[in-house]
Amino acid sequence: MRTRRLIALLILFFALSSHVSHGRSSIVEIGLLSKTKSKTIIITPLSGAYSLKYKDSVVYMLSNQDLLHVSVKNGELELKTLNGLLGHFPSIHLVPQGREGSFKLKPVIPYGHTRAYDDALSISVLEDRLKVVSEVNIDKYVAGVVKSEVGTNEGIELYKVQAIICRTYALSNFRKHEDEDFQLCDKVHCQVYYGRCDQADPLTGLSYIASGEILKAAILTTGLVLIDTTLELITASFHSNCGGQTVNSEDVWMLPKMYLKSIVDPYCVERRNARWKREIASDKWLGYFKKVYGYPIEDAGSRERALNFTQTSRAPYFQNNEQIMLKDVRTDWRLKSAFFSTSVEGSTVLIQGRGYGHGVGLCQEGSMEMAERGKSYKDILNFYYTNVALIDIASLRFLLK
Ligand SMILES: [Zn+2]
Ligand SMILES: [Zn+2]
User: Fold this and answer.
1) 135: CA distance to ligand 2 center in Å?
2) How many domains, the chain?
3) Spatial CA neighbour of 135 closest among 261, 213, 35, 31
4) Gap from CA of 269 to ligand 2 centroid (Å)
5) Given this model, what pLDDT does residue 395 score?
6) Which helix (H) or strand (E) holds 263?
7) How many whole angstroms from 83 Cα to the centroid of ligand 1?
8) Which of 117, 137, 157 is the last residue of a domain?
9) Which ligand has the minimum distance to the alpha carbon of residue 268?
10) Which of the ends of the chain has fewer CB neighbours closer than 10 A, N or C?
11) Residues lining ligand 1 (ion), CB within 5 A?
12) How far is the CA of 266 from the centre of ligand 2 (A)?
């Protein structure tokens, strides 16, 4: 079993290192606009000039004073620049002339947000639409994801935590889009990637000081991923706030993971999403349990218990009734968490809840608090994930010997 997982990790390692040549770092291929039937886009270099290649020949040099207009015409790419029509090609590859480069991409048909991306880009035709794949250094990709995930108000240790989680997730899902010839998409399905971790917004010019810190965190943790005791990359789940106690993975997803165990978290209880309230009419609340679960609301004792339910520590079931899972009650009523107690006020049930999200794995607000109190990224990851190890994916080279 161990050997098989090690082999799986090694395959992954070689998949990554096959992109490494002449000191170039690992590249990931991210499918952009993958759910959009994109027909026309405009590309403008931001920094550095780009060679526009078809197969191995350079067909044009795109400077940052120029732009590239790409559209689908009769099953081929029609390319135009400020100098006019460039021609028709089945596919093209945009490669930075220097070691690094970045560009803006504006979806025109259908219209979409202009975003900036790093490194190279390949464009081809898929049926009647554009297939656009960003070929980006993995640390730059990680920084872009972390920025859209946690924003720009945190410190570097928190960014390192999120960078490792993002990298672990990316590598364990490396084959998700294998049949489409890229590794990950830019949507929630994989991880939301809004492009490069910009120092400045490409449209407004507003600068983000933290962007530099996010990129630094990604580079300082380069190659680091989380594995469990069987050498498997972990499912690094996280949520906004656990309300003071995280949840066993099996209580939410029926899937026990030895590193996703419930722990008491003292760090998040004073943070923004620690507490919530909701009021629901008593008859609606009782009617729900009757209708969905056949709960005996005619019985005074049962009714009383359904109206006054207390959870001092996390419970998987409502009133110890194994048919009524709190995670389902949470989904049905769109509650912020399944960690709640109820009481009656007149004809209303007052629901007082703790935390926000599914509660499995790392608690983001708790992590922020830990980082603010001077804990390191290793302390934070080891606190929320039980019995995990951080390894450098490059160290697998030694495991092979
Ligand atoms: Zn995806
Ligand atoms: Zn927490």
Assistant:
1) 36
2) 2
3) 31
4) 7
5) 76
6) none
7) 37
8) 137
9) 2
10) C
11) 185, 189-190
12) 7
Residue 159 located in a structural domain: no
- Of the ligands numbered here, which is closest to the C-alpha atom of 190? 1
Residue 284, in any domain of the structure: yes
- Cα(356) to centroid of ligand 2, in Å? 9
Position 148 in a domain: no
Give the span between the Cα atoms of 92 and 77, in whole angstroms: 8
Which alpha helices (DSSP H) does 296-352 contain, by range? Answer: 300-307, 326-333
By CB atoms closer than 10 A (0-12, 13-18, 19+), residue 85 is: exposed
Q: Report how far residue 354's alpha carbon sits from residue 246's, in angstroms, rounded to the nearest whole number.
A: 11
Rounded average pLDDT over 23-29: 72
Give the whole-angstrom CA distance, residue 70 versus residue 50: 15
Can you list the alpha helix ranges (DSSP code H) found in 186-325? 210-220, 249-253, 282-293, 300-307
d(CA 44, CA 41): 10
pLDDT in tens, 278-294: 999 999 999 999 999 99
The CA-to-CA distance between both ends of the chain, in Å, stands at 19
Residue 350 covered by a domain: yes
Give CA–CA dist 390/399, Å, rounded: 15
Task: Give residue 179 CA to ligand 1 midpoint distance, Å.
Answer: 12
What is the tens place of the pLDDT at every residue in 187-205? 988 999 999 987 666 566 6
- Cis amide linkage into residue 90, ω under 30° from 0: no
Domain range enclosing 322: 275-354
Residue 150 has which token pair? 């946690």
Q: How far is the CA of 302 from the centre of ligand 2 (A)?
A: 32
Domain end marker among 122, 137, 152: 137
Question: Which ligand has the minimum distance to the alpha carbon of residue 368?
Answer: 2
Are residues 65 and 155 in contact, defined by beta-carbon separation less than 8 angstroms?
Answer: no
